[in-house]
Write a structure and sequence with these properties.
By secondary structure, the chain is α/β, with parallel strands linked by helices. It has helices spanning 12-17, 33-48, 64-69, 101-112, and strands at 4-7, 23-28, 54-59, 77-83, 90-96. It has one domain (4-112): Glutaredoxin (3-Layer(aba) Sandwich). A hairpin with a 6-residue loop joins strand 4 and strand 5. Helix 2 (33-48) crosses helix 4. The longest helix is centred in the middle third of the chain and has 16 residues, at 33-48.
Length: 113
């Protein structure tokens, strides 16, 4: 069962931005080889954070508004969207390029502590 769900422009705000829980979004495209390599990495890492982080993917070609909002001009790009620990306001942290499972987990852990 996939734990990474597809987001589109129409539901991006409701599913990723307006939630109170942390969300990781992978921006990708089918023609992007590093993106295709990273898809199973994100799937694997999502199984480690089932109760802590929601995982999504956004096809940048089909969802230009969401891609533009996060300036996803170079992909793969992952964004961790969370509430700031002091202000409670939603903020996004970005990481560009292919990442291993350990690197993605470290990226998440550093922001959730």
């Amino acid at each position: 069962m996939a734990t990474v769900k597809e987001l589109v422009d129409a539901n991006f705000n409701a599913e990723a931005v307006e939630l109170s829980e942390p969300v990781l979004v992978q921006f990708w495209a089918p023609w992007c080889a590093p993106c295709r390599m990273m898809a199973p990495v994100i799937e694997q890492v999502s199984s480690l954070y089932v109760d802590r982080v929601r995982f999504f993917k956004v096809n940048v070609d089909e969802n230009p508004q969401s891609a533009s909002r996060f300036q996803a001009t170079s992909i793969p790009l992952i964004a961790l969207i969370r509430n700031h620990p002091e202000t409670g306001k939603r903020e996004a942290h970005l990481s560009m390029g292919y990442k291993s499972e350990d690197e993605v987990a470290q990226f998440i852990d550093a922001l959730l502590e």
